[in-house]
Design a protein that fits this description.
With 130 residues, the protein is of the alpha+beta class. The chain has one domain (27-123). It has two helices and ten strands; from the N terminus they run E-E-E-H-E-E-E-H-E-E-E-E. A five-stranded mixed beta sheet has the order 2-1-10-7-8, with no helix packed on it. A hairpin with a 2-residue loop joins strand 7 (95-99) and strand 8.
Length: 130
């Protein structure tokens, strides 16, 4: 069994947040890793729902804030809906998925967690012009 560290980073490589999960298979697809990460962060939120959610994708009816999303009222989230949104965001380049120094370009790619136990997520923010 392997342990993985999920890390959110800025585009310049500065770590924002991270958490680890133990007892994972040694080899796992990128899709399964993304869904696992989302399931874990939603479970943590749902254990003590608040109006602020710090996760990979923005929940429906939430506003993006610095380092998180503010919802109109505290509520539980559906992890499968959030995971589907994360997959869609990956497909439209909403975030980069890095394993070690390598970018993952296909969610079907299998990752060996014994070689690269740190998975970095870099959210890409669209530039807005005048």
């Amino acid at each position: 069994m392997a342990s993985v560290t999920f890390r959110d980073e800025t585009a310049t490589g500065r770590a924002l947040e991270e958490f680890s999960l133990p007892d994972l298979p040694e080899r796992i697809s990128a899709r399964e890793l993304v869904r696992l990460r989302v399931r874990e962060e939603v479970a943590r939120h749902n254990a003590a729902p608040s109006s602020r959610f710090r996760g990979l994708v923005q929940p429906t009816d939430a506003e993006t804030e610095l380092n998180g999303h503010r919802m109109r009222a505290p509520r539980r989230l559906d992890w499968e809906r959030q995971a589907d949104a994360a997959e869609a965001a990956f497909a439209r380049n909403g975030f980069l998925l890095l394993v070690g120094d390598r970018q993952i370009e296909d969610l079907a790619e299998v990752i060996d967690l014994t070689v690269d136990p740190v998975i970095s997520f870099v959210k890409l923010v669209p530039l807005v012009g005048g």
